[in-house]
Design goal:
The complex is a heterodimer of chains A (255) and B (424). Chain A is an alpha+beta fold and 255 residues long. Chain A has 6 helices and 7 strands, in the order H-H-H-H-E-H-E-E-E-E-E-E-H. Chain A has helices spanning 4-7, 25-33, 36-56, 59-77, 103-111, 201-232, and strands spanning 91-99, 123-128, 133-139, 145-156, 160-165, 172-181, 188-197. In chain A, helix 3 (36-56) packs antiparallel against helix 4 (59-77) and helix 4 (59-77) packs across helix 6. By secondary structure, chain B is α/β, with parallel strands linked by helices. In chain B, a hairpin with a 5-residue loop joins strand 1 (2-6) and strand 2 (12-16). The longest helix of chain B has 13 residues, at 338-350. Classes of the chains: A alpha+beta (255), B alpha/beta (424). The A-B interface holds A 98, 100, 186-187, 217, 220-221, 224, 227-228, 231-247, 250, 252-253, 255 and B 1, 3, 5-7, 13, 15, 17-21, 23-26, 50-57, 72, 88, 90-94, 97, 105-113, 124, 130, 133-136, 140, 144, 146-147, 421, 423.
Chain lengths: 255, 424
């Protein structure tokens, strides 16, 4: 896979948090200590509890989520929450999609940041204040409202847009989106690099680790939704369609 | 409304569920007048397709009357009779523009999940697991159809449902299977499986200029239909020592030019191979039983074409890849790009070239769907194709809902649609 940073030398240092991060090798060796069986049991019980809670969105469910979270955390990291003191690593996601639309059209849609909530599921609104600063309102996976301010730090019309959250934000994140022509009139290749910096401290580290796969899935799904919206004019959904009786927890299919 | 819901292996129930609603601007709601149970529904019934959820509404072969339009729908009007392709397509992506509609990039809301299984996601399908979107299916009183400008075909006035219904799946599926054979003058086409898709593949092979068609199965009623309606030479594989030897003899030692696997992942294997697959599939070590796939590869002549309309879902073992490579076979497969074939095949029906209703063996009330699945699965009562008629509940035809029959007292007329979305 091509290193995204090589596509644009100017990206290096755009909203990166890596300079604050400890060596990542120490945590992966910790991971291997957990036994396979233990891991599986923890993963399943943790994921089932948290998954159930996410679906239910009630106080009772929140309790279940609290019970499940340490299990999920333990599975993801190999240790129980609060055991560690290192700084959290940023969650980094790189992904790309090809869209059958001209580069300029895609760029202008994305550049109007107010449009982002139309395809980014966790966003409620983005408001630009005109000086390159914008106010973002979104929801955490558990449905809690989060807000932050961000600035555009690099902009090359029709090609590249980079942004990062301002100091003091509730959620620290940064991203870049690249637009390049696909060959033979196959539209535009859109590449996204996204970084999410969890809060400092052991809890932050726990949250970051547990969130990593979820963030990756989210970014990929959002980019796919961008493609859906641009190509087909709408995003496919089944939310709100009928179904017969569903069991409370679906062991076979946690999705 | 009433709908056929998946409830686990060998268990479908007709349940009362909320009516579907318009969710996107290009959606329409169709009041289903006829639906069918497809052979590929049996893979769900038997539990071999992953990512089903209890309560999922089944059915991807259906037609009916448009009763509600999304804001952006221009091509149809309320009251139009339409038949609906089983694959949902946007019409605008790379694949739709190349008429590879079943590979549409924009209709599977669960594409990230599908990519884990298949590398890249195919189109969304009705009632065919959450891997392909988890769209509620059409074995129901009403169904929501997305991207109506691409995904409905108007049915000409006067054409009965039974003739038009199969344009949504199995007729195009059989036709694409034959088209994938690139039939040349003099070609012999061998078709494994004389179920509905096999029957249409046989019909289509003739339309596309086959010299001979050989039909392979073990059920007498299916072989008889292939021989009578399909004018094929028939081969009962249980009556011969070796299908491969028999085919070689029948083709003067040359082999069939084109071999069609119209069976798919739940082939009835015999001998050691069959036992091996059954055992591995029971232990979930192998998701598919590729007996017929092995056969078509071995039987096909050198440089010939293998066409696979039969559904495979996951992984199969002991595929004779050496035979495939060394004989230089061409393999063509895929879910059908139904939208590509509907119009020309409708023309053939209108011209009287073919009457698709010939394959229907059972017509049941929607309420009797569980019985329909059982009969079809076990091929009892000479069952070849089951169609279902919704909206009959409440008029005394149903005998299978003795208890709480709330939903049965609503006739399925437009005015009585439940617009609350809460069902009953």
């Amino acid at each position: 896979m091509r290193d995204i940073a090589t596509l644009s030398p100017s990206l290096q240092g755009t909203g990166r948090f890596t300079e604050d991060s400890p060596d990542s090798s120490s945590h992966s060796s910790g991971n291997r200590l957990a036994s396979v069986v233990g891991n599986t049991v923890l993963a399943v019980s943790g994921a089932v509890l948290v998954g159930y809670a996410l679906k239910q969105r009630s106080w009772k469910a929140a309790g279940v989520a609290l019970a499940g979270a340490p299990l999920a955390y333990r599975q993801a990291t190999g240790s129980w929450p609060l055991q560690r003191t290192e700084e959290a690593l940023p969650v980094t996601v790189e992904t790309s999609v090809t869209i059958m639309k001209p580069r300029e059209e895609l760029y202008s849609f994305w550049r109007r940041l107010e449009n982002l909530p139309r395809f980014m599921r966790h966003l409620d609104s983005v408001t630009e204040s005109g000086d390159g600063i914008s106010h973002w309102v979104g929801r955490s996976p558990l449905g809690m409202k989060v807000e932050w301010d961000a600035e555009v730090i690099e902009e090359r019309e029709g090609h590249l847009l980079s942004w990062r959250s301002l100091p003091g934000s509730q959620v620290h994140n940064a991203g870049s989106v690249f637009f390049e022509d696909a060959p033979a009139n196959r539209g535009t290749i859109v590449r996204v690099v996204f970084e999410l910096q969890p809060p400092a401290g052991p809890i932050g580290r726990a949250v970051g680790k547990a969130m990593s796969p979820m963030t990756e899935q989210q970014v990929k799904q959002d980019l796919r939704r961008f493609k859906n919206l641009m190509e087909a004019g709408e995003i496919p959904t089944t939310d709100g369609q009928p179904a017969g009786k569903r069991p409370a927890i679906n062991i076979h299919n946690p999705f | 409304m009433r709908a056929v819901c998946w409830n686990g292996v060998n268990e479908v129930r007709v349940e009362t569920v909320p009516d579907p609603e318009i969710l996107n601007p290009r959606d329409v709601i169709v009041r289903v007048t006829t639906a069918a149970i497809c052979g590929s529904d049996l893979h769900l019934y038997d539990g071999y397709i992953p990512a089903m959820k209890k309560g999922d509404i089944l059915g991807h072969e259906f037609m009916g009357e448009v009763v509600e339009l999304g804001t952006d729908v221009k091509n149809v009007q309320v009251g139009d009779r339409v038949v609906v392709p089983f694959n949902i397509s946007c019409g605008q992506c790379f694949f739709c523009q190349k008429e590879m509609f079943s590979l549409c990039d924009n209709t599977n809301p669960n594409s990230v999940m599908a990519e884990k299984m298949f590398g890249y996601s195919p189109a969304g399908l009705y009632g065919y697991s959450h891997l392909t979107g988890g769209y509620a299916g059409g074995q129901a009183d009403y169904v929501r159809v997305p991207f109506a400008d691409v995904n409905v075909l108007k049915v000409p006035e006067g054409m009965e449902d039974e003739k038009a219904l199969f344009l949504g799946d199995i007729f195009p599926t059989g036709y694409m299977a034959a088209e994938n054979c690139d039939i040349e003058p003099g070609d012999t086409v061998a078709v494994w499986g004389c179920g509905p898709v096999g029957q249409f593949a046989i019909q289509s092979a003739w339309m596309l200029g086959a010299e001979r068609v050989i039909a392979i199965d073990r059920f007498p009623e299916r072989l008889l239909l292939a021989e009578g309606w399909g004018r094929a030479e028939i081969l009962d594989y249980e009556q011969v020592d070796s299908v491969l030897d028999t085919l070689r003899d029948m083709t003067g030692g040359f082999g069939p030019d084109c071999c069609i696997d119209a069976v798919g992942m739940e082939a009835h294997g015999s001998g050691l191979d069959g036992f091996y697959d059954k055992a591995k599939q029971s232990l979930r070590l192998e998701s598919d039983r590729p007996t017929v796939l092995r056969d078509v590869i071995m039987a096909c002549r050198k440089g010939g074409t293998v066409s696979i309309p039969g559904v495979y879902g996951g992984f199969g073992d002991k595929i004779p890849i050496g035979a495939m490579m060394n004989k230089g076979l061409t393999i063509k497969t895929g879910q059908t790009h139904v939208q590509r074939y509907m119009r020309p095949l409708l023309d053939r029906i209108q011209a009287g070239e073919i009457d698709p209703s010939r394959i229907i063996s059972h017509s049941l009330d929607l309420e009797d769907a569980p019985e329909g699945y059982e009969t079809f699965k076990h091929k009892e009562d000479n069952c070849i194709k089951v169609i279902l008629k919704p909206h009959a509940h409440g008029n005394g035809h149903s005998h299978h809902h003795g208890g709480n029959g709330n939903g049965r007292h609503r006739h399925g007329m437009e005015g009585e649609r439940d617009h609350t979305g809460k069902g009953l």
